[in-house]
Amino acid sequence: MCDGKKNNPSAFPMGNPLPEMFSKYFIGQAYLQPLTDKGGPISNVTFEPGCRNNWHIHHKGGQILIVTGGKGWYQAWGEPARELHPGDVVDIPAEVKHWHGAAADSWFSHLAVEIPAEGGSAEWLEPVDDEMYSNL
Ligand code: MN
């Protein structure tokens, strides 16, 4: 695997390739740098071009994405995809099926803020359809 760190699109560290427990739910390579466990845990997530996660649901606690670099996408089920740029904030309510990731031609990074909730969990679902993604 080539070292993608020279491509880091943000001021935060890229960290390491996602552990397998997460990477199996991603298409392409992403990197994870935990930043803090105080309050809701916050991590910096960096996606290589074309990388995105599967459709998934954050149960009980939602998630906030704070875009820190590059260009990417967020899409909630049944809604048009939203193009993301540094400075954008996405408030993802609990129980909303969605995905997020890089644009096909750009590195992308966001802070992922997990909203703490008793019994909170993530449910991972099917990959984002290639044809739909390629038409974004
Ligand atoms: Mn999410």
Helices and strands in order, then pairings?
Blueprint lengths: L15 E2 L2 H4 L2 E2 L2 E7 L5 E6 L4 E2 L2 E4 L3 E8 L1 E5 L5 E3 L4 E4 L5 E5 L5 E7 L6 E4 L5 H5 L2
Antiparallel strand pairs: 1-3, 2-5, 3-4, 4-12, 6-13, 7-10, 7-12, 8-9, 8-11
Bound molecules: manganese (II) ion.
The site of manganese (II) ion has 6 residues, from strand 6 and strand 11.
Characterize this entry briefly:
The chain has 136 residues and is mainly beta. 7% of the residues lie in helices and 43% in strands.
List keywords for this structure.
single chain, 136 residues, mainly beta, 6-stranded antiparallel β-sheet, 3-stranded antiparallel β-sheet, 13 strands, 7% helix, 43% strand, globular, binds manganese (II) ion
Structure description:
- The protein has helices at residues 20-23, 130-134; strands at 16-17, 26-27, 30-36, 42-47, 52-53, 56-59, 63-70, 72-76, 82-84, 89-92, 98-102, 108-114, 121-124.
- It is mainly beta and 136 residues long.
- The strands form 4 sheets. It has a 6-stranded antiparallel beta sheet with strand order 1-3-4-12-7-10, with no helix packed on it. A 3-stranded antiparallel beta sheet has the order 9-8-11, with no helix packed on it. Strands 2-5 form a two-stranded antiparallel ribbon.
- A hairpin with a 5-residue loop joins strand 3 (30-36) and strand 4 (42-47).
- The two termini are 27 Å apart.
- The model has no long low-confidence stretch (mean pLDDT 94).
- It binds manganese (II) ion.
